Amino acid sequence: MHTSNAELKSLFLDGPAGKLEALLNAGAPGATHAAVVCHPHPLYGGTMHNKVVFHAMKALRGFGFPVLRFNFRGTGHSQGAHDEGRGEMDDVRAALDWLDREFRLPIVFAGFSFGASVGLRACCPDARVVALIGLGTPAVFDGRTHRFRFLESCSKPKLFLSGTHDEFGPPGVLEEMVERAADPKQLVRVEGDHYFAGHLAELRQVIEGWVGRVVVAR
User: Fold this and answer.
1) Neighbour count for residue 41 (Cβ, 10 Å)
2) Residue 76 and residue 47: Cα distance in Å, rounded?
3) 82: how many CB neighbours lie within 10 A of its CB?
4) For 148, phi and psi rounded to 5 degrees?
5) Cβ count near 149 (within 10 Å)
6) 3-state secondary structure at position 126
7) Distance CA 82, CA 136 (A)
8) pLDDT per residue over 43-85, tens digit each?
9) Cα(178)–Cα(122) distance, rounded to whole angstroms?
């Protein structure tokens, strides 16, 4: 479905609620891993073209990984309707199925905000996913604290990266969530807000450093 010399391929995945609009950034010959990156909340303008999602893709593609981005159901040209995170977990699984069929490589997950919340839940128990990156993981949203208790039994390598002034990951709350999560794990705070505005270069550097040490070097 793709050619290795194509820099960027537009495609549609078979999702549980209909077709899912997607983009594949081609990997290098002999790639060691594939990757998927999930976008922030669609009801607040989140799509696969989000700047944080794009920079995460660039960081992962720098290792030669093929990287898949897709729009959740009801977003862009994806079919279906927003399902408050429930059906979106199935969308993530559909993306993992596609990557596994195409490349037969271990998968690295990255997700931003809503994409982190939904994707971590879908990917922690999936044996095809070997490493997890939560960007701006929303520990506090809609006035509620989300504990992410499932992380306590998720022993895959995990990177959590948030801004120092992230209103959805306030100091103490995100740290407590990560503290309870199973090892191995790392929490990195970079200067900035939830959207890493003005600090996307630092975001890429942190992802690149962690993937180089924890994923590629294994």
Assistant:
1) 20
2) 7
3) 15
4) 55, 50
5) 10
6) coil
7) 21
8) 999 999 999 999 999 999 999 999 999 999 999 999 999 999 9
9) 18
Structure tokens at 217: 């070097």
Residues 158/184, Cβ–Cβ less than 8 Å? yes
Query: In 67-180, where do the E strands start and end?
Result: 67-70, 107-112, 129-135, 140-141, 144-145, 158-163
CA separation, residue 101 to residues 13, 28, 34, 94, 207 (Å):
12, 17, 11, 11, 26
For tokens 């303008």, what's the residue? 45
Confidence of residue 23 (pLDDT cuts 50, 70, 90): very high
DSSP letters, 27-93, are: --TT-S-EEEEE---GGGT--TT-HHHHHHHHHHHTTT--EEEEPPTTSTT--S---TTHHHHHHHH
Q: What angle do CA 140, 187, 142 make, to 5 degrees?
A: 5
What the chain holds in terms of domains, given with CATH numbers, is: 8-216 (3.40.50.1820)
Give tens-digit pLDDT for 143-179. 889 989 999 999 999 999 999 999 999 989 999 999 9
Tens-digit pLDDT profile for residues 124-145: 999 999 999 999 999 998 888 9
Cβ-based burial of 19 (10 A; exposed 0-12, middle 13-18, buried ≥19): middle
